[in-house]
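Note to self: keep these together.
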Amino acid sequence: MATRLNPYLSFAGDAKQAMEFYKSVFGGTLTSHTFGEFGGAPSEEYTDKIMHSMLETGSGYTLMGADNPPGMEHRPGTNFSVSLSGDDADELRGYWEKLSADGTVAVPLEKQMWGDVFGMCTDACGISWLVNITGTDA
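Structure:
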């Protein structure tokens, strides 16, 4: 799989409805996983909330989204990140090192409960980045 760059949208509890709306607009295949599916629901009310959703269209568009977990502020207008994902661990770790170097790391780049290596940071320019390395060991 090639490395891809795409927008990642954050929602205040309505990610499922929003991603279904975008599917109705762009078509394609929508996959969604709840916090409860991975045993990572921070509370009972989050069991059915979306932990990760991805819409891939026939036109080559990829749009990702999720519900904000408790403790993460939802700020409309700034509720997006840029996602880098793929299976080239060296390439993605290189991007991570540069993006996080003078920024703030929210989630260290490490193995997560769903099996991938993942991290979140805000770069020195104030842009939020999500880096996901598919199917790698920590």
